[in-house]
Amino acid sequence: MKKPARPPAKPVRPSALQAESLRQTRREHASETAEDYVEAIADLAAAQGEACVVDLSRRLGVTHVTVNRTLARLQREGYVSVQPYRAIFLTAAGSKLAKECRRRHGIVVAFLRSLGISEKTAEIDAEGIEHHVSPETLAALAKHTGK
Amino acid sequence: MKKPARPPAKPVRPSALQAESLRQTRREHASETAEDYVEAIADLAAAQGEACVVDLSRRLGVTHVTVNRTLARLQREGYVSVQPYRAIFLTAAGSKLAKECRRRHGIVVAFLRSLGISEKTAEIDAEGIEHHVSPETLAALAKHTGK
DNA sequence: GTCAAAGTGTAGCCAAGGCTACAGAATGTT
DNA sequence: AACATTCTGTAGCCTTGGCTACACTTTGAC
């Protein structure tokens, strides 16, 4: 498999940069779940006073079992506070994260809407995109939308 | 955890829509790997004639073991053709997918650059974003960049 | 031809995030 | 108080996608 005549350097995209980009994307993916959860918990708390497991499972489109296990992880990581058969609360760190997510989500949706994207598509795309927008890009989107 | 006084309907974001958006994001995530791989294979083949496991592992920022296992899955799914100790080839389906990915990646990067994002950040963000851009949004981005 | 280096393959481990099936707790109605 | 419903929790299974460690093939140089 050794390439006998390897053209010294004609990388379409520099290999190291792409590898780093993909590593970054994987890191982001690891925190996506946390972000989705704290955002949902904050929303539910705002809308109806408190968040419970079934509400979250409906909201997130997974079973209550998945919610339960994930909450345990988020508690381990310090984002939420959970006790058996009790409501779910965000810690200070969780609230902070939720706030940032909400802001970022809003900016991304507003930007997409400003491009003429339908509301439904904007919501769907934003949900996927928002976790991968750097501060630099987020600022640019906000500026572009606001102009 | 039953909410005694549940306000009938004051969802910040409609629960069903968000659940569906998240489900969509998860579906996209499942195909992200395939897209990254076929894109890398196509690039390597274009740049140096053929793609091998170590090249891919360097390119993707994972070990050769991970590449190997993933290639087995992609073969199962009909995107690549692999034989022990032989070069890696894309099937027709794989080539088609790679072409689409490349186009989409180009559009996203060009758009970010047009917003004034630095090249490096544009690459990193694009890598995360490109998998979550709907055809509708992609068209809008292309139009916006090209205008 | 030999041999070392590089590439490839395999075994087995881990965590995350899905799921079903079942058991126990809380709640609201009667 | 009893009961049915809903909610919550647990056990155990699956797939994906990381990894290290070790074994085997190819390749290139001598």
Number of discrete helical segments of chain A: 6
Q: Nearest-angstrom radius of gyration of chain A?
A: 19 Å
Number of domains of chain A: 1
The string of secondary-structure elements of chain A, in order, is HHHEEHHH
Oligomer: homodimer
Shape of chain A: globular
What low-confidence regions of chain A span 5 or more consecutive residues with pLDDT below 50?
1-12
Largest interface: A-B, 65 and 65 residues
Which structural class best describes the helix and strand composition of chain A? mainly alpha
Distance between the termini of chain A: 54 Å
The CATH class of chain A is Mainly Alpha
User: Which percent band covers the strand fraction of chain A?
Assistant: under 5%
**For the residues shown, what is the average pLDDT of chain A?**
90
Describe this structure in words.
- 2 copies of one chain form a homodimer.
- Chain A has one domain: Winged helix-like DNA-binding domain superfamily/Winged helix DNA-binding domain (Arc Repressor Mutant, subunit A).
- The radius of gyration of chain A is 19 Å and the shape is globular.
- In chain A, 69% of the residues lie in helices and 3% in strands.
- The first copy, chain A, is mainly alpha-helical and 147 residues long.
- Chain A contains 6 helices and 2 strands; from the N terminus they run H-H-H-E-E-H-H-H.
- The longest helix of chain A is centred in the N-terminal third of the chain and has 34 residues, at 15-48.
- In chain A, strands 1-2 form a two-stranded antiparallel sheet.
- The interface between A and B is large, with 65 and 65 residues.
- Chain A binds a DNA duplex (30 and 30 nucleotides) through helix 1 and helix 3.
